[in-house]
Amino acid sequence: MQYTTMPEIDKLLQKAQEVLMFLKKTTVTERARLMHHIADAIEALGEELLLTAQQETNLPVARLATEKARTVFQWRSYADAVATGNVLAVRIDTALPNRMPAPKPDLRKTYLPVGIVTVFCASNFPFAYSTGGGDTASAIAAGCPVVVNAHSAHVQTSVIMAGAIAAGIEKAGFPASVFSHVISEGFENGQYLVQHPLVKAVGFTGSYMGGKTLYDLAQKRAEPIPVFAEMGSVNPVFVLPKKLKADPKKLAEQYAASLTLGVGQFCTNPGIIIVPDIPEFDLFLDTLATTVTETSPAMMLHKGIAGSYHKNKQATITQPGVSVLAEAANTNELAGNATVAITGKDNFVHNKTVAHEVFGPFGLVVKYHSTEDAIAIAQSLEGQLTATVWAETEEAGDNRELINLISEKCGRIIFNGFPTGVEVCYAMQHGGPFPAATDSRFTSVGPDAIQRFARPVSFQNWPDSLLPAELKNENSLQIWRTVNNELTKEHIVL
Amino acid sequence: MQYTTMPEIDKLLQKAQEVLMFLKKTTVTERARLMHHIADAIEALGEELLLTAQQETNLPVARLATEKARTVFQWRSYADAVATGNVLAVRIDTALPNRMPAPKPDLRKTYLPVGIVTVFCASNFPFAYSTGGGDTASAIAAGCPVVVNAHSAHVQTSVIMAGAIAAGIEKAGFPASVFSHVISEGFENGQYLVQHPLVKAVGFTGSYMGGKTLYDLAQKRAEPIPVFAEMGSVNPVFVLPKKLKADPKKLAEQYAASLTLGVGQFCTNPGIIIVPDIPEFDLFLDTLATTVTETSPAMMLHKGIAGSYHKNKQATITQPGVSVLAEAANTNELAGNATVAITGKDNFVHNKTVAHEVFGPFGLVVKYHSTEDAIAIAQSLEGQLTATVWAETEEAGDNRELINLISEKCGRIIFNGFPTGVEVCYAMQHGGPFPAATDSRFTSVGPDAIQRFARPVSFQNWPDSLLPAELKNENSLQIWRTVNNELTKEHIVL
């Protein structure tokens, strides 16, 4: 393996900085064109990509093919979002020279790239949250050159993807340093990047430990920089009594399916289910135990992930008041065997270790007796990417206090469903209160993810000929603009 | 003076937390109504407010009256911005149950308040950036209860303003703890607030020292929270040769007027002017010297500000290569006497002390000889709230590299004008790259300031009857919404 050296990183960043000045001058239309070229190049990648990724991550080819299609869709939909002005909304206030007591100047606000963005790849999504994933696509959409730090668990996949991105950039006629690829042994390169004066923002998807370390490094810089770290969560599922009563068996089967999907290796995996102690509780529990026991163990992403799964699971199930309900058989320490345990409300609320994320197919059933119990459980939760409520519609209406409290803790709240499956669309919020993410005001999925890497700049009293295209009187890009408080696509006639 | 104790702060925050759950359930229309009531109450304040503020800050009554009107306008325009959906833009993607390979869920994204916001007041704007100022208005617009830490330099003004806000809240029928007022001796209360687990965001306007200290405290919390600190800057003015040649006398007079406006106590004060060494340079300099010498010194905001002005000015003018060009006479150490000094490009670029902000009526002329000089000066700058270019239109077109570089360093870029005067409108960007502000992606002035204190939350597959009003199929609030990628005010028909 040829690792990137720090002097090489310096050179990559210096070139990227030159390209930043070039990208600043491109219009949203030109950046959208670039992004479609990159999407084409990724789309054209064939079996080599899928098989390499399969070998490096143990993920099935069918799942990887879907993830690749999603990755391509991210590039295209983010490109459309900037090109239409739906994201990075332009604001224009025209002058009022006769206003009293002072004239109002002409002010026009657009967005500039924050600067070079460093992206850290996720082990569990080699395409969609990695080299050519959502962070890279949204940073380039904002006009930022990107330096990707490849994930050590899927370097070859990363190299292939980097090649496609480079080809797309070349085809579009953009300078190569829009995108750079760093291969690292250990953590030093990553830390060097986050502390480098030319790097102005960071995108990260992974563990709390990894994300928080980078966040702290970035805040300690002489010039602190924004770090968007998506660090996962336990994604609690609250079940209300009438819904449990309606079909305990089906709920248990569906929960087990969501919990064990992809060997539980999703940051939205529903690791905790809060279930009322009513007569149907036993049937729910029996079905869950049976279904989980019958799940075949499967290879996890890599040795480190598997090791952590078994260690963290052990730490939880050996806590006082926690008992194992069911555990699928396992003969391979690199595989994740589905496991569910059970505990009570008091134990969950008072012992923080019990509520910690176990990345993998591990579920914890928390039994509760009353609405007050459920509220206490919700209150004890840390920030989550998602939370889910299973309830009859009327029942949910009667439990608004609980549901309000749950929504306080998460970025996405699901009704009678499961959180695995993160749709790429405008209405997606993938993020949440700390520690699910480092900044709950942003999403890392959907076109609004672009907002993480753009900063507004106002132009005051500039001649029309010198303004960026999106701010000129003539709306040649045909984007949505807020002109004197009204959304419009009209030209401005002064 | 009755100072607030820490146990009292705890109680205020506990009550505010209860109100947060109440505010979460209010619609944007209801919050807008509350804000207009507060605006009414502030508007109704009369001479007592103005005279108290005048006594505490030495600011003239006429200026204070304008600032009060601006403050009222902030409440009203931010109220309208949330009520129309122009800020906190709702996104809706309806379900595609038959999509392959997997159905698409119904997703609807709105905004929740981040939680209790603590606001620190500015010494130089007792109304517009203080107790009832832009931070408070934008936090309440986002649905956040606010705890204001009064500025020690204008506590009585703050008390009067807090009374008006309380009256407005009562009139609107909202709970009192939407707004709380803390009076502090020293810094302990402020630090306690920023570190309190119930506080979820901070707004600050003031010095670099103050803002950075609070920022660092907030990042060291177990749960880091966003701090938007606007910390001022030197707001460089770049003059290009043809423009100087056109009218050196008028430019010097206008610059002096902007520099000394309000005893130079604006965060947008143009503390540095970069002027080409052409024959007209001498006339520019002579006029500037004469105008500045003739400026009457005036009382600064308070003793601390005046002391810092004289100390910091002294530190700059005693640097090697810096010489005083003109200094208005002064007999009162509490007054700020306008002063201009001059230095050369090399000295400016290599000695960071020379480029430091001197808060008050102090200007530094930096002489340059070539476009390369001007580029080097621009490159050496830290992040700025504003930067200004004086140029003929054609000349500016010929200097795009320089202007691009300047825009890279600031939040607002002005053409042939001066940065003092911060318009309250959608297109305003008041903020900028660090150290002008702690997060360049947000503004503290204009309706978009609300975005600092709101976080998106997605509702997945919720029954229409249980959705927040702004997300229901029927668009009863008549707000702009992005529905299936298109901006519309239409109802949704499924």
Q: In words, what does this structure look like?
A:
The structure is a homodimer of 494-residue chains. By secondary structure, chain A is of the alpha/beta class. Chain A is built from 16 helices and 19 strands. Chain A has helices at 6-24, 28-44, 47-57, 61-84, 134-141, 155-172, 188-195, 208-220, 241-246, 248-260, 281-293, 303-317, 345-350, 371-380, 393-397, 400-408, and strands spanning 90-93, 107-113, 116-120, 146-149, 179-182, 199-205, 227-230, 237-239, 272-276, 298-299, 323-327, 335-336, 339-344, 362-368, 384-390, 410-415, 454-460, 481-483, 486-488. In chain A, the strands form 4 sheets. In chain A, strands 11-13-14-9-8-15-16 form a 7-stranded mixed sheet, sandwiched between helices. The first copy, chain A, has a 5-stranded mixed sheet with strand order 17-2-1-18-19, covered by helices on one side. A 5-stranded parallel sheet of chain A has the order 5-4-3-6-7, with helices on both faces. In chain A, helix 8 links the parallel strand 6 (199-205) and strand 7. The longest helix of chain A is centred in the first third of the chain and has 24 residues, at 61-84. The N and C termini of chain A lie far apart (61 Å). The mean pLDDT of chain A is 96. Chains A and B meet through helix 4, strand 1, strand 2, helix 8 and helix 15 of A and strand 1, strand 2, helix 8, helix 15 and helix 16 of B.
